[in-house]
């Protein structure tokens, strides 16, 4: 083989020498042959003629030798690329159209692929992420559903399992840091001691937690790299220092590395502390770590090497079943456990919509390819002459196809390059729309994998759109096309182009219908009646540190605060509620209806909230019957509840609920026994979560009768709500300068954040449908315009023979209508068949929606007709004299 | 001319060229004449096949070329077998004999 490699280099690099030697050799051979013939008695010139005949032509032999050489393919390719550059440069409008089309297709596809890659495919940023699994309980009655763990169940799982190297748990825990700058609320996570070793992460400074640091009374914390840098100036001496969190001293034991993010969907978590704080409780109360009925945890397990998810599930199911037997009151309904790969949990909600989006953008790319195939076919028709000349000069069919595919490849590479730039730019604009609902979305960028993907796309698309035209061109019957000056119109071209346009219209309609569904759904979501007035509302939260503020002091503080806020100019009313409507939290609690009680495990559950008296009027929720809460609804008065209309209709259909008794399964601080409450009012059904199709049954407690914590504050203003933010902070500081105000937000901002995910998908899908429609219409226009040009002479003859101009118009339009109608028919059928893929993304809109599909069809049809009308009108303006003379 | 026949002839041509060069170095015309001579005129090798074959064998390193003056003092490119060319010749001879044996047996059995 080395001989061949040497030859390859010689052939490519020292081409002139090689050619010269070949020339010499052949000339010498001619001379030798001539001499031989002369010896046979021929004249000099006759001998030479005979010699040349015997050799078979010097140039022909040379060409045969060249075809034999190594590196010939490479050399041809280089020649083809040069030639392709020249051809593309010669028709700049064609090249520009093709490159822009491809840039749109490849750019959009690459951008969506980067998102899919980052969000769905990238492994979790921990060591050996394949061995990480999520563990939760499984609710088994009325269909299986995942259910958060309780601490005692978690401890049992941790001790009794045989499958995990580590089993850790985490829950959100926000802590107020004082003593460093202004007091501020930090996003923290309360975890078991071995979180860091379970994830295989070493702290950057200091150490991770110790097993003993889970014990009650220990206060230790690991800081995030960012918090360490911004609040402590990156001081390495921080380890061992005390900081004040919730007015208690915590020892800093370590700093996490900059790249560390846990949980994955909360990358801005600022500190981690141990579950020690959950082991503490006010005297008389049971700490949450002992309450088997309180479910607020999820667990993360690192499987032992070689253990499968199925084995882990089987092992935990045994433990869960044993616990259900041992503690029937709390565990009867959670006799199983759910185990699945952690990555699957993280991307759970984003997987389907992102894959749908990826499919949609793939269709856009297909339409773009069809467009370019069409453009190429038009070009091929005008290059028939060139191809015929090539064939006549001895180019083989394969050689012609290779050259044409090289042109396609060059186009695709240029298109991909432009597409990458486009994708880079588009991602900067579009990604922020996604909000925080899609995990890891903000990290999406065009990395090596996305780059490789776009290069692959370039190759695939070039074959896809280039092969058909190339095959067609290589079949040229060169005699007839040379004779007829390139007007030997091929019927096959027309049929292929028609098929391409039909498929474009079909795919275009599928995308437009899909976008229509999403837009209708999003509009419904945006305009759905939430049951409360979201304008002119400012909300914020705060928390009071426990030992300093007893429950009574907390209530007094809250009264004070509301009183001060009401006096602010611009504030109409002030109230408190927890959980905040349209916030990310909601709470559910079981209850018993006093007149028909059931066993504890079978109690119904509904959304719950607690509120101050002015809440309903502040939020704009109407009173339907009975009364609102008032200031006398405290622990000294009878316990009361307000329910919404949905609750009344669900649990007391056809009855008057005022005066009915209910015993909720929740109790205030320090209370042991569940107490009966009386329903005193019915309010309108407000939706606390905009995605709920119907408002959920909800029951409200009076804050003073269930003072779990100070509720979020809600202000109704008669000025733009944000204006009041600084005044609110001042009022709070005047009451207690150590209490930070956080999550300041207007209600409209909250709503907007809640719908950011559907908005993201709708905007993207809408853009893709727009591009698809544009490309499909341009494709139709191109085919019609071309067909009119080709038929200029025919139309001229018709007009000369007395055809009406309107007859010409309708002739051309008919041709377009056939393409459109077939495309629309196929498109409608496909939309109906594929609409169900969108079902999970739709809000109170049916996936098989004739009205929307009809509208989409109308839109595509009308724009298509418009695109066809322009060339048709052109056809009627043909001057018969000019058309007939233009031969 | 069917494709199979061409392939057979191309393989045969390689063998004939190697065989021709196994005795002494020759130039292109000389090889052609030698083949005609040893096949008693049965094969007239066209130069359009001979030169491409020769150049391919040169690229493979089976033959090497040098410019020399010919018997009647003309400059000519002479080809000579290399050691890998000799090995190749042995391989091709063995293959050929095998083909002949198999074909003969096949034809006679019919």
Q: What's the SSE blueprint?
A:
The complex is a heterodimer of chains A (887) and B (110).
Chain A: H1 2-13, H2 15-39, H3 44-55, H4 58-68, H5 72-90, H6 92-121, E1 132-139, E2 145-147, H7 151-160, E3 164-178, E4 184-191, H8 195-199, E5 205-206, E6 220-223, H9 225-232, E7 242-245, E8 248-255, E9 271-274, E10 298-303, H10 309-326, H11 328-331, E11 336-341, H12 342-346, H13 348-382, H14 384-392, H15 397-430, H16 448-474, H17 478-483, H18 491-527, E12 537-541, H19 551-566, E13 571-578, E14 587-593, E15 605-611, H20 615-619, E16 623-626, E17 640-644, H21 645-651, E18 661-664, E19 677-683, E20 698-702, E21 712-717, H22 725-735, E22 742-746, H23 747-754, H24 756-790, H25 792-800, H26 805-834, H27 850-876, H28 880-885
Parallel strand pairs in A: 4-9, 6-8, 15-20, 17-19
Antiparallel strand pairs in A: 1-2, 1-10, 1-11, 3-4, 3-7, 3-10, 5-8, 6-9, 7-8, 12-21, 12-22, 13-15, 13-21, 14-15, 14-18, 16-19, 17-20, 18-19
Helix pairs in contact in A: 2-3, 5-15, 6-13, 6-15, 6-16, 7-10, 13-16, 13-18, 13-24, 15-16, 18-24, 18-26, 18-27, 19-22, 24-27, 26-27
Chain B: H1 3-23, E1 26-27, H2 28-38, H3 47-60, E2 63-69, E3 75-81, H4 83-109
Antiparallel strand pairs in B: 1-3, 2-3
Shape of chain A: elongated
Strands in their spatial order, largest beta sheet of chain A: 3-4-9-6-8-7
Name the helicity range of chain B: 55-70%
Low-confidence stretches of chain B: 1-8
Oligomerization state of this entry? heterodimer
Radius of gyration of chain A: 38 Å
Number of strands of chain B: 3
Radius of gyration of chain B: 15 Å
Biggest protein-protein contact in the assembly: A-B, 27 and 23 residues
How much helicity do the residues of chain A have?
A: 40-55%
**Helix/strand class of chain B:** alpha+beta
What is the strand tally of chain A? Answer: 22
N to C succession of SSEs of chain B: HEHHEEH
């Amino acid at each position: 083989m080395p001989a061949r490699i040497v030859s390859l280099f010689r052939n490519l690099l020292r081409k002139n020498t090689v050619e010269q030697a070949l020339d010499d050799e052949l000339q010498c051979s001619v001379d030798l042959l001539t001499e031989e013939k002369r010896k046979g008695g021929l004249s000099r010139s006759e001998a030479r003629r005979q010699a040349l005949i015997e050799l078979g032509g010097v140039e022909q032999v040379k060409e045969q030798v060249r075809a034999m050489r190594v590196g010939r393919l490479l050399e041809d390719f280089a020649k083809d690329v040069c030639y392709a550059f020249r051809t593309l440069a010669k028709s700049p409008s064609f090249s520009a159209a093709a490159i822009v089309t491809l840039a749109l297709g490849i750019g959009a596809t690459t951008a969506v692929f980067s998102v899919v890659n980052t969000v769905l495919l990238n492994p979790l940023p921990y060591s050996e992420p394949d061995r990480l699994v999520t563990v939760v309980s499984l609710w088994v009655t009325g269909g299986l559903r995942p259910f958060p763990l309780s601490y005692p169940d978690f401890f049992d799982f941790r001790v009794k399992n045989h499958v995990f190297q580590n089993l850790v748990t985490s829950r959100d825990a926000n802590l107020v840091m004082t003593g460093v700058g202004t007091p501020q609320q930090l996003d923290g996570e309360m975890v078991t001691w071995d979180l860091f070793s379970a994830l295989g992460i070493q702290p950057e400074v200091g150490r991770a937690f110790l097993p003993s640091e889970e014990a009650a009374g220990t206060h230790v914390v690991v800081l995030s790299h960012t918090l360490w840098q911004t609040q402590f100036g990156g001081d390495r001496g921080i380890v061992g220092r005390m900081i004040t969190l919730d007015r208690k001293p915590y020892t800093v034991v370590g700093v996490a590395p900059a790249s560390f993010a846990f949980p994955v969907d909360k990358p801005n978590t600022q500190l981690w502390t141990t579950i020690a704080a959950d082991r503490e409780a006010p005297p008389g109360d049971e700490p949450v770590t002992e309450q088997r009925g309180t479910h607020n945890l999820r667990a993360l397990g690192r499987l032992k090497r070689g253990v499968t998810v199925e084995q882990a599930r089987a092992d935990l199911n045994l433990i869960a079943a044993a616990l259900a037997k041992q503690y029937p009151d709390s565990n009867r309904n959670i006799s199983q456990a759910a185990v699945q790969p952690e990555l699957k949990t993280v991307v759970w909600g984003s997987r389907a919509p992102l894959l749908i989006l990826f499919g949609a953008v793939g269709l856009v790319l297909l339409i773009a390819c069809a467009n370019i195939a069409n453009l190429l076919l038009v070009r091929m028709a005008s290059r028939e002459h060139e191809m015929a000349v090539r064939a006549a000069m001895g180019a083989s069919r394969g050689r012609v196809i290779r050259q044409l595919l090289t042109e396609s490849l060059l186009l695709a590479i240029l298109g991909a390059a432009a597409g990458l730039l486009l994708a880079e730019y588009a991602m900067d604009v579009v990604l922020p729309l996604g909000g925080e609902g899609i995990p890891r979305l903000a990290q999406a960028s065009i990395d090596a994998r996305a780059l490789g993907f776009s290069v692959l796309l370039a190759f695939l698309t070039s074959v896809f759109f280039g092969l058909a035209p190339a095959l067609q061109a290589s079949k040229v019957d060169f005699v007839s096309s040379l004779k007829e000056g390139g007007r030997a119109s091929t019927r096959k071209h027309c049929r292929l182009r028609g098929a391409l346009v039909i498929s474009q219209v079909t795919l275009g309609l599928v995308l437009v219908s899909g976008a229509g569904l999403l837009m209708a759904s999003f509009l419904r979501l945006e305009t759905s009646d939430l049951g409360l007035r979201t304008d002119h509302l400012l909300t914020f939260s705060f928390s009071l540190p426990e030992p300093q503020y007893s429950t009574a002091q907390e209530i007094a503080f809250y009264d004070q605060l509301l009183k001060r806020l009401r006096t602010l100019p611009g504030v109409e009313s002030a109230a408190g509620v927890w959980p905040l409507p349209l916030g990310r939290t909601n709470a559910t609690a079981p209850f018993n209806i006093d007149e028909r009680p059931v066993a504890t495990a079978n109690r119904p559950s509904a959304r719950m909230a607690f509120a101050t008296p002015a809440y309903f009027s502040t939020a704009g929720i109407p009173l339907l019957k009975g009364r609102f809460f008032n200031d006398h609804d405290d622990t000294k008065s009878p316990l009361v509840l307000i329910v919404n209309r949905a609750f009344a209709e669900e649990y007391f259909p056809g009855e008057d609920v005022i005066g009915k008794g209910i015993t909720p399964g929740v109790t205030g601080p320090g209370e042991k026994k569940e107490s009966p409450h009386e329903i005193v009012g019915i309010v309108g059904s407000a939706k606390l979560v905009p995605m709920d199709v119907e408002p959920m049954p909800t029951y409200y407690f009076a804050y003073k009768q269930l003072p779990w914590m100070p509720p979020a504050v809600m202000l109704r203003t008669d000025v733009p709500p944000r204006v009041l933010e600084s005044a609110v902070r001042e009022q709070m500081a005047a009451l207690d300068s150590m209490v930070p105000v956080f999550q300041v937000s207007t209600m409209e901002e909250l709503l907007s954040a809640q719908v950011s995910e559907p908005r993201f998908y709708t905007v993207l899908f809408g853009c893709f449908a727009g591009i698809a429609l544009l490309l499909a219409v341009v494709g139709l226009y191109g085919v019609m315009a071309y067909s009119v040009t080709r038929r200029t002479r025919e139309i001229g003859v018709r007009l000369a023979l007395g055809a009406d101009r309107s007859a010409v118009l309708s002739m051309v339009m008919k041709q377009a209508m056939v393409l459109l109608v077939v495309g629309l028919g196929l498109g409608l059928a496909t939309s109906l068949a594929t609409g169900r893929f969108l079902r999970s993304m739709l809000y109170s809109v049916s996936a098989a929606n004739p009205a929307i599909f009809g509208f989409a069809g109308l839109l595509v049809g009308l724009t298509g007709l418009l695109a066809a009308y322009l060339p048709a009108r052109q056809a009627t303006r043909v001057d018969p004299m000019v058309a007939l003379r233009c031969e | 001319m069917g494709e199979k026949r061409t392939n057979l002839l191309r393989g045969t041509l390689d063998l004939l060229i190697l065989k021709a060069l196994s005795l002494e170095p020759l130039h292109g015309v000389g090889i052609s004449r030698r083949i005609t001579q040893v096949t008693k005129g049965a094969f007239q090798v066209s130069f359009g096949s001979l030169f491409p074959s020769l150049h391919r064998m040169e690229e493979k390193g089976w033959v090497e070329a040098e410019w020399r003056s010919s018997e009647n003092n003309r400059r000519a490119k002479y080809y000579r077998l290399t050691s890998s060319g000799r090995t190749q010749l042995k391989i091709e001879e063995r293959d050929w004999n095998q083909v002949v044996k198999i074909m003969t047996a096949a034809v006679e059995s019919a």
